Amino acid sequence: MDKPWGVIRFIDFKDGSEHKFYTMVNKMSGNRLTAFDNDPPSIDDSLPWIKSVFKDIRKKATKILSYEGTKHFQ
Questions:
Q1: Which residues, including other chains, have CB under 8 Å from residue 22's CB and lie 6 or more apart?
Q2: What Å distances lie between residue 24 and 4, 6, 37, 74, CA to CA?
Q3: Which of 10, 17, 35, 40 is 20 to 30 A removed from 50 (C-alpha atoms)?
């Protein structure tokens, strides 16, 4: 995959529950899809906003369980 993508699993600092945040580009439509958990994805969020979400998760989460993706969101 040549477009920036990422999936991060983490423990929420508020209630201790596990969550997932992801972003990737749909190969068929070319649209960027971004969502938390199993919520419907939003379409074409800006990369700076998505980077800020990954950064905030790393700063505020109780624990990062895993990260997969490109270096753009590390």
A1: 5, 6, 7, 8, 33, 34, 35
A2: 7, 7, 14, 14
A3: 17
**Cα separation of 50 and 22, whole Å?**
9
* Runs of H (alpha helix) within the chain: 47-60
In this structure, which amino acid lies at residue 70?
T
Note if the pTM is more than 0.85.
Answer: yes
Q: Name the nearest CA neighbour of 8 among 49, 58, 59, 72.
A: 58
Cα atoms in the Cβ-side hemisphere of radius 13 Å centred on 54? 23
Catalogue the E-assigned strands of the chain: 6-11, 18-25, 32-36, 42-43, 63-69
Give bridge partners of residue 34 from the DSSP assignment.
Answer: 23, 42
Each residue of 58-71: pLDDT tens digit?
999 999 999 999 99
